[in-house]
Amino acid sequence: MMNILNSVLDTLQIMGWMGLVLFLLACVNTACSTVYNIAVLKETFKWKKMLKGIARIGLFYLCSIFVAIAFTILPFINEMITTTFGTQVISNDMLKDLSGVGVLGTCLGVIIQQGKKAFEGIKKLGEVKSEKEEITWTVEEE
Question: Rounded to whole angstroms, how far apart are CA atoms 92 and 75?
Answer without folding.
Answer: 6
